[in-house]
Amino acid sequence: LIWAAISLFIYLVCSQIPVYGVQKGAAGDPLYWIRVILASNKGSLMELGISPIVTASMIMQLLAGVKIIEVDQNLKEDRMLFSAAQKFVGLLITIGEAVAYVLSGMYGDIQQIGALNSVLIIVQLVFAGILVILLDELMQKGYGIGSGISLFIATNICESILWKSFSPITLSHEGGVEYEGAIIALFHSLIVKPNKLNAIEHAFFRPTGSNLSNLIATVIVFLIVIYFQGFRVELNITSRKVKGYQQKYPIKLFYTSNVPIILQTALISNLYFVSQIVYKRFKGNLLVRLLGTWQEHEAGGQSYPVGGLAYYMSPPREISDLVTDPIHSLFYIVFVLTICAWFSRLWVDVSGQSAKDVAQQLKDQDMTIQSQQRDGMIVKELNRYIPAAAAFGGLCIGALTIVADLLGAIGSGTGILLAVTIIYQCIETINKESGNPSELLFGQLQYFILTPVSYTHLRAHETSLHLVCRLLLEKKKR
């Protein structure tokens, strides 16, 4: 927990340090709606966020899944080479994205900011990208909970939700001055407005900033996602060597977790980035306009699509758009549902989670599904559940994302799904590693508490930590 807090502190500090040499108000931000998910902050050292390392991970997993590169995860040398190659690819992508950001005019015209400032910006972004890779490696080595990527995503999303709920920043508009935070705006309206019912109604449905209906929608989506996390099919597996030992193997509805929505988000972000760059230079080209036409918001300098493929792949801004712009809404719903289900099904095969891979893992551990002793029957039994869970789970994730976006949940539907699944995974990791909350609090106390166990029980629950105990017992038995 200490190392996780230190890593998180470094990330948050870097998110607030501005990049030196940036020209203020240089260009709009086509990725403003997705930055929370990428754990990035425009104009800061964390401009790239986790994008390079996630992209590198997906590329390496895809290459390994389609057998372009041969990796045996059971061999320590292969795992080390695969991890090193993934970090190297992440470094190359970091350099490539840093150069692309500068050349695209994200920080201003190169002739205006100068060659020296351009090089300094690239160096700063590359340094921050390397730092993210190192922090993620630190977490994965066992010095934290889960991975650095998950920690940064969840932190960024939760920070966004808390900020939009309790932000003390004031917003000026035609109706006067209001606070940005939804809860603070509620109390401000109750104090300022003489009509309390109108004040409450305004706090729920105000058009400027986040409102209470957005906050309630966020809580509802949180609860729905947590509820769906409990959907699973549990298969009874037994040991081939230890008679009487049984264990549950869960196949969750969200079998591929949040991977489908991450891949869908990465696809959309890359499309947005490329579309805006070519639109700036070739506005009159028909193909470019079919890819996407863009308009910059007067307040805040944010760019958003108003036509083309980029527009139809963007979420509706309000639930009323289902009626006012049905073609856009229908296209977006079909696209998200289809792409999430397809990505989820594809990821099962390329990430080593297919029925064949799971059957091999069970075989390597001398385990088998109860009443299914032959390897072919095990694969057939797993194929009854895994492909369906992957496709339908991806479909459910896409549907939840759409519902959250239409309800106006804070942080976007994608962000909320990522936050809930990551936090849920962290809790499961803590439970697996500690066994119960008391062990988490008291650390290694269990090693000083001696409780008698039978020899069969010890063999059934054997781990690397208990290997010495087993050897001593066998020596005593002989």
Can you offer a commentary on this structure?
A three-stranded antiparallel β-sheet has the order 4-3-7. The two termini are 43 Å apart. It contains 22 helices and seven strands. Strand 5 (293-296) and strand 6 form a beta hairpin. It has 478 residues and is mainly α.
Helix content: 55-70%
Series of secondary-structure elements, N-terminal to C-terminal: HHHHHHHEEHHHEEHHEEHHHHEHHHHHH
The helix count comes to 22
Q: How does the helix and strand content classify structurally?
A: mainly alpha
**Spatial gap, N to C terminus:** 43 Å
Describe the secondary-structure layout.
Layout: H1 2-16, H2 35-38, H3 51-65, H4 76-103, H5 110-113, H6 115-143, H7 148-166, E1 170-173, E2 176-179, H8 182-192, H9 196-205, H10 212-229, E3 232-239, E4 246-252, H11 259-281, H12 286-291, E5 293-296, E6 303-307, H13 308-312, H14 321-324, H15 326-350, H16 355-364, E7 367-369, H17 375-383, H18 386-407, H19 412-434, H20 437-442, H21 455-460, H22 467-477
Helix pairs in contact: 1-6, 1-7, 3-4, 4-6, 7-19, 8-9, 10-18, 10-19, 11-15, 15-18, 16-17, 18-19
What's a concise summary of this model?
The protein has helices at 2-16, 35-38, 51-65, 76-103, 110-113, 115-143, 148-166, 182-192, 196-205, 212-229, 259-281, 286-291, 308-312, 321-324, 326-350, 355-364, 375-383, 386-407, 412-434, 437-442, 455-460, 467-477, and strands spanning 170-173, 176-179, 232-239, 246-252, 293-296, 303-307, 367-369. It is mainly α.
Keywords for this entry:
mainly alpha, single chain, 478 residues, disordered C terminus, three-stranded antiparallel beta sheet, 63% helix, two-stranded antiparallel ribbon, 7 strands, 22 helices
